[in-house]
């Protein structure tokens, strides 16, 4: 997958970034993430905006895995449980449907089988 090395979510050259490394399988994409304490909102709780960023990036990578560069047009997130710095999570993203230049995707952040957060989004591929 094409990567921008300064991307906050996946860029390996961004010293403050999450440095997510995505893998592709038959269902979509996934990456493991361990949040640093620098990403806390309240003590020992990862900021919801950081969790949202991880979900958004998983969906972006899922559409990119199909060879499409698209941008988030609409995003809905449900934070179900707190994410704790230093613990290992896995984020999954997958394409649900596409029509012309509009793509619907979903993502989920899990700790084992436990759902921490989930998202649904529409991505737009400009100029298609």
Mind explaining what this structure looks like?
The chain is mainly beta. It has one domain: Thiol Ester Dehydrase, Chain A. It is 13% helix and 41% strand. It has 1 helix and 6 strands. The protein has one helix at 48-64, and strands spanning 23-25, 28-34, 71-79, 88-99, 102-111, 114-124. It has a 6-stranded antiparallel sheet, covered by helices on one side. The radius of gyration is 14 Å and the shape is globular. The two termini are 20 Å apart. The mean pLDDT is 95.
Distance between the termini: 20 Å
Pick out the low-confidence regions: none
Shape: globular
- Tell me the name of the CATH homologous superfamily: Hotdog Thioesterase
Radius of gyration: 14 Å
Task: Specify the CATH architecture.
Answer: Roll
Strand order of the largest sheet: 1-2-4-5-6-3
Strand count, sense and barrel status of the largest sheet are: 6 strands, antiparallel
What is the chain-wise order of helices and strands?
Answer: EEHEEEE
Determine the fraction of residues in helical runs and give it as a percent range. Answer: 10-25%
By DSSP (H or I, 4+ residues per run), the number of helices equals 1
Structural class by secondary-structure content = mainly beta
Question: How are the secondary structure elements laid out?
Answer:
Elements: E1 23-25, E2 28-34, H1 48-64, E3 71-79, E4 88-99, E5 102-111, E6 114-124
Antiparallel strand pairs: 1-2, 2-4, 3-6, 4-5, 5-6
Short description:
The chain is mainly β and 128 residues long.
Keywords summarizing the entry:
Thiol Ester Dehydrase, Chain A; about 130 residues; six-stranded antiparallel beta sheet; single chain; 6 strands; mainly beta
